[in-house]
Amino acid sequence: MKKLADFKYNVGDIVNCTKTTYEIVGRRIEKTSQGRIKKYLCQCQKCHGRVEHEEKDIRNCIYCANKKVLTGFNDINTTHPELVKYFENPEDAKTVYAKASRVYVNLRCPACGFKRKMHASALTSSGKMHCPRCSSSNSYPNKLGLAVLLQLPIENLETEFSPPWAGNYRYDFSFYHQNIHYLMEMDGGFHYDKSKFKPLEEIQEIDRTKNRLASENNCVLIRIECKKSNIEYIRKNMESSLIGEIFDLTTVDWIKCERECSKNSIKQIADYYNKTNSIEQTADHFYMCEQTAITYLKRAATLGWCNYQTLYQVQNKNMLKAVEIKKANPELSRSEVAKLIGVTCTTATSYLEKAKQMGLIDNIDDSFNVRKSKIMQILKDNPDTPILQLQNKYGYAHGTLRKYKRELDESTSD
To answer: How buried is residue 29: exposed, middle or buried, by Cβ count under 10 Å (0-12/13-18/19+)?
Structure first.
C-alpha cells in the first residue's frame, strides 16, 4: 500500500473554512502534468454533501452556498414542496434549487394545463405559477391574445417574455414563425389615453424604448390596439394588423377563444364558494390571493350568486340578533346575550349600544331592574317562607334576598 505520509490531513480530521466545517472522508493523489496533486473528499457537517478539494484550496460548501443543487437539501422538491404541482415533470423539482435565478423550469398549470417556462427564483419568490390563460389577474386582451396564438401555426410561444437584452421590460408574447422572431403587445387604453396607472407620456416613452430594443435585436414587434375589452373590437384590430397579414385569422375558433377568456369567471368562483363556504379554499382552488377572492365574491353577492357577507354585514346581522334576544328576554345580562350569539361581552355591548343609538331598543341596562322586580315578586308571593328555603328554590344569593326583604318590609310598614 502506498505511503501517504505527505498528506496534511488524515481521514476523520475536521477542517474549518470561513463558513463551512468539513470532515475528511477520503483522500488521494492525482498525477498531472504539473506534478502530484493532493486531493480530499470533504463532507459538509451541515448538508452532508461531499465535494472534492485540493489540499491548498479547500473552499466553503457549494451546496450551502446554493451554487449547486443537492437533492434532499436545497432542491425545490425539498425547500418548496408546495410548488412541485406546477412542474411539468415533478422529478425536475429535485434537480433545481430555489435560488437558481437564471435557470428556466418547465411548468404546467394544474387548473387548465397551459405550459410555460419560468425562472426558478421567480417561481419560489411568487409562491405560484402565474397562468396567462386562466389567471383572474390577467387582462382580457392578454387572455384573448393567448387564446388566438394557441390556434396558430407558431413555435416557441412564450408569455411575459423578458430576455436579457430587454432589461426590466417585458413583452406580452414571443413566438417564431418561418424562422422569424415575433413579439406581440396587447395595448390597453392606458397606452393611448390618460389613466390612473402612470402618466401617458411615461407609458408611451416605455413603448418607444421597447420598440427600439425589439428592432435592435432582430425581432418584429406587433402591437394590437385594445382600448375596449371586447372580442369583436380586438378581433377587428388583430385582422387589420400584421398578424392578420401573416395568418388567416378566419380559421380561428373565436367562440372557443371567448370561452377560454371566461374561465375563472365570477360565477365559477361564486359557485365554488357556495360549496365550500371557505374563502381560503376558494382562493387556493382558483390560484389567487384571498383578497382577490373576496373582491370577486363581493361582486357575486351583489348579483345574488353567493351568500358571501362582508364583516359589516355580519356585524349588522349580529346586532339585530342581539336586539331580538334582548327584547324577548329583557332580564338577560349582556354576558348572557353574548353567549347566545357567540361573541364576547364587549362585542355584545357594542352591538346593543349601537342599536340604542339607532332607536332599535330603548334600554340595554334594565336587566338589574328586571331581576329586582322578579325577586320582589317572589318575596311578596312567599311572605312567610324562610330566606334559606327561597335561596334553595330560586337560586338567588342569601344576602340579596335579605336585602330586598328588608326593603319590602319597610315599604309595607310605611
So the answer is: middle
- β-bridge pairing 180-188 and 50-54: unpaired
The three grid cell numbers given for residue 11, joined into one nine-digit string: 481521514
Cell numbers that stand for 360 in this block: 332599535
35-44/21-32 β-pairing:
antiparallel
CB neighbour class for 311 (10 Å; exposed up to 12, middle 13-18, buried from 19): exposed
pLDDT-based confidence at residue 366 (cuts at 50, 70, 90): low
Q: What angle do CA 124, 130, 131 make, to 5 degrees?
A: 140
Mean pLDDT of all residues belonging to the chain: 84
Which residues is 39 bridged to in the sheet? Answer: 28, 54
How far apart, in Å, are the Cα atoms of 86 and each of 92, 109, 222, 289? 11, 6, 30, 17
Which of 139, 143, 146, 149 is closest to 244 using CA atoms? 149
Q: Is the entire prediction scored with pTM above 0.90?
A: no
Alpha-carbon gap, residue 271 to 273, rounded angstroms = 5
> SS3 helix, strand, coil % of the chain, rounded to 5?
45, 20, 35
Interhelix angle 398-413/367-381, nearest 10 degrees = 70
CA dist list (Å): 118 to 94, 112, 124, 160, 163? 16, 17, 10, 10, 12
Is-contact 221 100, C-beta < 8 A? no
> For residue 58, which of 11, 23, 99, 6 has the smallest C-alpha distance?
23
Q: Quick one: residue 218, left, alpha or beta (phi over 0 = left, psi -120 to 50 = alpha)?
A: left
Residue 202, SS3?
helix
Residue 171 to residue 227: CA distance in whole angstroms: 18
pLDDT, tens digit, 9 for 90 and up, residues 172-214 = 999 999 999 999 999 988 888 877 667 888 889 999 999 999 9
How is 329-351 classified by DSSP, letter by letter? -TT--HHHHHHHHTS-HHHHHHH
Q: What is the pLDDT of residues 146-179, one digit of tens each?
A: 989 999 999 999 888 889 999 889 899 999 999 9
- Per the CB < 8 A criterion, the answer to whether 333 and 365 are in contact is no
Q: Specify the pLDDT at position 321.
A: 86
At which residue does the C-alpha cell 426558478 appear? 120
Residue type, 207: D
